[in-house]
Amino acid sequence: SQQGEEDPQALSIQEGENATMNCSYKTSINNLQWYRQNSGRGLVHLILIRSNEREKHSGRLRVTLDTSKKSSSLLITASRAADTASYFCATPQGGSQGNLIFGKGTKLSVKP
Amino acid sequence: GAGVSQSPSNKVTEKGKDVELRCDPISGHTALYWYRQSLGQGLEFLIYFQGNSAPDKSGLPSDRFSAERTGGSVSTLTIQRTQQEDSAVYLCASSSPRQGNTEAFFGQGTRLTVV
């Protein structure tokens, strides 16, 4: 079963705009991770937020985590055409060392 | 190697044949994961290895699917009597306990087409 569920399923914006993607999960977590996938092949790790953190930044990325609502959001500021990709959240089951369960992803399209 | 390596990158097979997909994780990574991704869909978890043992194989879709890992390194995913619904990209990832299993590194996947 899917642990994380992202929304929206698809998002289309203009270059320069901000993109916000959300992820909800079901069980308690140790950390939550966001990944990016280009062209349906390998995923690349973007950022990890631990359960005791509420917000984290990395470049143009900002991630928030609300453990009371079991949800996280990924914000990409000042988007670029190169940000076009699918974005997935993932949570490890069974603490920090369990198998990683991924959501279904948000397909982001940034138009130049 | 520098990254996770999967082979072959593409495989076309006839329905009913067996296939073997290989994954070479990053050296020293004890955790290894297999996922399946159908076109335009999310990642479907198949199996997870910690060392040579598989604490969670709950995602394997049927008894036609099996996986093994030897020497805490290379893993092979075997699909017997392939069906057309097995067509997908099969992704492998590995992670390191020294990093708290925090970040998974992915291979480029094997695109399997069953005709």
Layout of secondary structure:
The complex is a heterodimer of chains A (112) and B (115).
Chain A: E1 4-7, E2 10-14, E3 19-25, E4 31-37, E5 43-50, E6 55-58, E7 61-66, E8 71-76, E9 85-92, E10 100-102, E11 106-111
Chain B: E1 5-7, E2 10-13, E3 19-24, E4 31-37, E5 44-50, E6 53-56, E7 65-69, E8 75-79, E9 88-95, E10 105-106, E11 110-114
What does this structure look like?
Helices cover 0% and strands 57% of the residues of chain A. Chain A is an all-beta fold. Chain B is 0% helix and 49% strand. Chain B has strands at 5-7, 10-13, 19-24, 31-37, 44-50, 53-56, 65-69, 75-79, 88-95, 105-106, 110-114. In chain B, the strands form 2 sheets. In chain B, strands 2, 4, 5, 6, 9, 10 and 11 form a 7-stranded mixed sheet that branches. Chain B is globular and about 40 Å long. In chain B, 37% of the residues are buried. The mean pLDDT of chain B is 91. The interface between A and B is medium-sized, with 25 and 30 residues.
Structure in a nutshell:
Chain A is mostly beta strands and 112 residues long.
The chain-level mean pLDDT of chain B equals 91
Number of helices of chain B: 0
Q: What's the total number of strands of chain B?
A: 11
Task: Report the sheet-strand fraction of chain B.
Answer: over 45%
* Number of extended strands of chain A: 11
Chain pair sharing the greatest interface:
A-B, 25 and 30 residues
Radius of gyration of chain A: 13 Å
Q: What oligomeric assembly is this protein in?
A: heterodimer
Low-confidence stretches of chain B: none
Average the pLDDT over all residues of chain A and give the rounded result: 89
Structural class of chain A: mainly beta
Q: Output the number of helix runs of chain A.
A: 0
Instruction: Flag low-confidence runs of chain A.
Output: none
Q: Please report the distance between the alpha carbons of the first and last residues of chain B.
A: 33 Å
Tell me, what's the shape of chain B? globular
Q: What series of H and E elements makes up the topology of chain B?
A: EEEEEEEEEEE
